[in-house]
Amino acid sequence: MRERLSMDKDWRFHLGDPVQAKESSHKAVYGHAKAGGSRGPAGIEWNDNEWDTVHLPHDWSYRQPLDRENGVPDFGYYPRGIGWYRKKFKLDPADKGKQLLLEFDGIATHATVYFNGSILERNFCGYTSFVVDITDRAYFGDQPNLLVVKIDATVSEGWWYEGAGIYRHVWLTKTAPVHIVHRGIWVSPIRQVAGRWLTNVETTMGNESEAAVEYQLISRVAQADGNILAEELTNGSCGAGQSAVITQDLPIEDPALWDVDAPHLYKLHSTLVVNGEEVDTTVTNYGYRTIRICSDTGFYLNDRPLKIKGTCNHQDHAGVGVALPDGIQEYRIQRLKDMGSNAYRCAHHNPTPELLEACDRLGMLVMDENRNFDSSREGLRQLGNMVTRDRNHPSVVFYSLFNEEPLQGTPIGRKMVKRMIRAVKKLDSTRPILGAMNGGVMEDEGTVDVTDIAGFNYMNGGYDKFREKHPNQPIIGSETVSAFSTRGNYISDNNRQIFDSYDREKASWGNSVRESWKTINTRDFVMGTFVWTGFDYRGEPTPYEWPSVSTHFGILDTCGFAKDSYYLYQAFWLDEPVLHIVGHWNWPGQEGQKVKIMAHTNCDEVALYLNDILIDRQPIDIYEQYEWDVAYEPGTLKMEGYQDGQLVKVSEIQTTDEAHTLRVETQKPVLAGDGRDAMAVNVYAVDGQGRFVPTEQSKVSFSMKGSGVILGVGNGDPNCHEPDRAEERSLFNGCCQLIVGSQAGEEDIVLTIEGNGLQPVSYVIPVQPAEEPPFVPSIDERYINNWLITQEIAEARPDPNVTIHPTDMNSWEKVDVSFGALQMLRGASGYVIYRNQAPVSDVEGSGRPYLWFHSISGDVEIYVDGRLQLKQFILWPESLEVPLQGVELKNQVTISVLIGITPDMYSPGIQGSVSIRTK
Length: 919
Ligand code: GAL
Hints:
Domain Glycoside hydrolase family 2 immunoglobulin-like beta-sandwich: 184-289
Strand content: 35-45%
Shape: globular
CATH topology of the largest domain: TIM Barrel
Domain Beta-mannosidase-like galactose-binding: 84-158
Bound molecules: beta-D-galactopyranose
Domain Glycoside hydrolase family 2 catalytic: 296-371, 381-545
Domain Glycoside hydrolase family: 662-761
Helix content: under 10%
Structural class: mainly beta
Largest sheet: 9 strands, antiparallel
Protein name: Glycoside hydrolase family 2 protein
């Protein structure tokens, strides 16, 4: 039966290309050209003991110091470079005969995947998930498997922080030879008439067995509580080595619809039966919903017009680079939901699958975007991958083919888009397709009218003109706003490279939040907006460069702390009354000076009080909001919000005392002790009365006990150069954040936070016992494979240390001893020599080194660098320990094993794995 195991744990990692001894002999070159012959760090003998141990997801880029000299502003001045990952693991003998698939959710950027010494895959897009079939090449039992990934992140695909490394999850899936193929389920519910749906299911099964099979596919629709609502059985046959596509329609009456407010999910259970035995089952989450677009009235979800209130986002977060634990995906999507946002644009690339799962669960629509605008075979492969991976997600409602491509308004672009659309529609014709354009929309021979939707990046003034020309084409603000603000800051300062928060700073091509929303919300034919950006991200510190290392565009900072515009969106997008005071009231020494104060509100009238004295009462135009210059006087600034004359909301800010201690808020009440969960822990400076101190900038330090670990820290300051992998951080305008990860265990976490002059805080995060999801453990042992054996059985005892001429590829042959005894030695008499070379330098100091033969028999003599180590007659195969004596522990020693054979020996020779161990 199917098993899916995490491959995230315990990889060896090396930054940069390890120095390799030059091997230019014919023997080396010849050997390297053979299957399994990869050398250096890709080979089994490579010593990675000194490499770091890391867990996935892992991003090495942000862990490096910032590099102003060589760094690129777009990448946030973080170095990228080359990195190597190695993982050695064993497979159970019971896995023999199974199909084994490695799934890589994403690697930045160019990845070469080696498995047991052969390159099995090359992947060229840092956002594309891919699989590697290791079925043919796997070892079972004692002989370990070696998975190596070389990553070249010197190449880039974007103009933002892309990270570097295996920054998403890796999985190993084991299935029976007759199975449902990878991504072989496509569920596409179709509404027939109101309340009646057909759940269209396309299942692809594969038969990798040696014989044709008769199969039965059972598909069942289950509610969230497990209750089965529909079932369909299909019988069929499938030839050996063939695959079959089975189409089924499961009728469902009145399903609970997936919607942004109530994201009901269903499960499709697929079971494949052969000869009365269940050979495979999978579970696919999906939802029932309809989408429709109209050139006059925009987007419809479940027949309800829905203005798209979206944000564009890249994928990094404070503390963890692009290697986000799943819990942080959830955190980010929830922060956007709480703002009233209903849509997320994966700019400018497809996301990790866990992000889409979070969007499915939380009710967030998704524009899934392709990275490379490319209609070549490779381009279409990347695009097709996105579609087949993501099409079961109810959250995904748009596919975007490109962002701001110079060819967008040209006949070449048109041809490319046509081909790409055809490729997408073949796989999924249920989602409208667009390109995010920043020009070319008025060109007749461009791309715009061949897409389902015209995507407008900025170009606010162009909507009406375009509509005149193309009245039947729906329009969306695929990218909007690009306003600048710095969280908690109220005075723009060019020297300090920070912006105020009064919604007036913006890129020259952008708009204020208010301008943009007014333009879009007053035009029914514009489907909605995708604001640049939801979260600040590393890199692209426009309009600045160093010392700014991350953006100023976000509505939230890199930690997810809200800037003031967050509340402006709430005012626009939430139905409940919102009244937020933009500004703080801590201006010591500035008594009598004017301080700008602004309301972000959806109330129709606001009254402003200073120390209980009414200063002003104003009607509010929702698209304008309102601001006052108030003479500073310590105390309380209060706003009252009125709706139709009724008081509906009160907000106030107060002048606080100095910071006294810290307040901790966690993303969720408990952390699962499963070794995988993670959460954001937000830290706020507060005064003696527990009031937030918005001006505190001091450094605080963290320590932690219990089943948790600090994965990283951040504070949302775009100019901060403190490391994110640390146990301390400066508060930025009163806040900082820790990302806390679970370590398998049940001990509650005690987080202690200390700051200079601040009362230390001890905060308990309860840990809920939870099972660790199944994973593939790594092993650390050093194995020697790639033995040579003399091709002929010598009658007379040869010199065991005879030199092999480097051009001689034919007196010796390669032998994989892990497969057991060689038939040619059975019943023979004479001598053979096994020969190998292995590095033993590292074992020095760490204990007494010895060679370990899992199974060996014969009249055995073992030599290392010509020195006899052991001589023993072994009639029946047994394991053997050979301490190394008088051997210089250098990088390469030569091991020779002479075996005398007589016909009465049951199975002479080396017949199992060999390793170097220490005591
Ligand atoms: C757009 C681009 C985004 C980002 C943004 C900044 O042109 O699509 O990736 O660079 O500008 O305003």
